[in-house]
Known about the structure:
- The chain is about 40% helix and about 20% strand.
- By secondary structure, the chain is of the alpha/beta class.
- Strand 10 and strand 11 form a beta hairpin.
- Helix 5 packs antiparallel against helix 6.
- The two termini are about 35 Å apart.
- This is AAA family ATPase.
Amino acid sequence: MKIKSIEVNNYKAFYGNHTIPVNGKNVFIYGENGSGKSSLYYALKDFFQSSIEVIDLNEVENIFIDASDKGKSHIKVVFNPDKDGNNNNSAYECTATSKNTDSTLDTSIKDANNLKSFLTYKHLLDIHHIKRGEEIDLFGLLVKGVLKHFKYTLTGGKELGALWKELEDMIAKPTDRTHTTAQKKSEVDRALKTFNDAFKQLFEEPTAATANPEYILSHATPILDLFEHSLKIKLRYLQAVPNADYTAFERNQVRIDLQYAGKAVIKPHLFLNEARLSAIAISIYLGMIKRHPQLRNYKLLFLDDIFIGLDISNRLPLMNILESHFGDYQIFITTYDKPWYEYVKSFLEGRAGWMTLEFYATQIDKGYEIPRILDNNDYIARAEKYLQENDYKCAAVYARTAFERELQKFCDRKGIAVKYHKQVKKYASEHFWNAIKSQNHMTQGTISDIEQFRDLVLNAFSHYNTEKHEIKKELQKALNSIKSLKGVLDAIA
């Protein structure tokens, strides 16, 4: 199964009805703040969760909708292929107050939900304050962050985060005649044993005599190794205990033992920067997904803005990890970092399994913003769209952008030398164009067409010029010459 399209109606940032075609591909999304990228994350998360419980979409419907539209929000997902691998559309819908009845009949959606494969930057926020004194404590990062939604047999069917929240509520509850100290101690002790028995199993390293399929590092370590930090870690859980008067917990800590390049690091809190801690946390999270049975009809991985704490030397390994370890998942990634998005777009270009989208916040006549989704990142196509709308200035700018991009791509692919400038803004299309011309890859006819329209259209129309009359036919011919050039360059091995 693969998601073909996602329809979101009056949910969070999505005022009105929005259909996002993804056509079974992995999706890398750029979105400025408030553009709806996180709303898409939560829409898909709620959709899959609706396979096991009622999700009240009324609580998260767009606040600007008319009274007549209240209670009508929905999330509809169309899959193709279907659960049997056939080329058929199969649609499932989560409506405002009803359980996703279709997916309760089809266990594929339930199975996908059980992977708990949604990670947002909010789950990683604890990285900023896990260094307590002379130690690093990963308890909050794991229980309230990256492992918050995981559950298995020993948790009694509850998620780790929910189990710990219940304990925090129990320990904070005051005693009175209806809830005596003895009752409180008994309840806390019983619930704490359930939590400790479940949580400590994640840290018990298997031995030759004792297997432990729940060991947290079995799958996390191979992923961490691919970040190439030369780190070896072990985690120790200091089991939570109530204090003397049962008003708080003590010792609920996860400590880290660390080796770097084979040498023990005595003070990990001085050695582990934010990027390394992020790499460890992400590796644990991805490893916990891989510990689940993998034979499922549909597997999704959604990573919302998690590149925030990673520099470029960690971002690229993560992209490779996703391709090597999660090749059979449909992956959704969001970022607000436009330069990084542009880099990844070039990195993914030509890979049939990926597409890119851009989310923007667009103000409408009523004074508030809605998402505007650009699902066609072909600059030539955008130029043609604006040409048909008689917006010749926009058409010319996109045509020029398409021309420059094709030249830079070709020089990069063929290793063609271009004069070096320290500042990117000093590079002009002329530098790349002259470098390519000198290689004798093109016919004189192709060169002449480009030369003609560079002067008449691509340069002139892209600037403010009251003496230049923008002519649609010239723009169309310029676009045709760029498409012809693209075909010529793409065909050169």
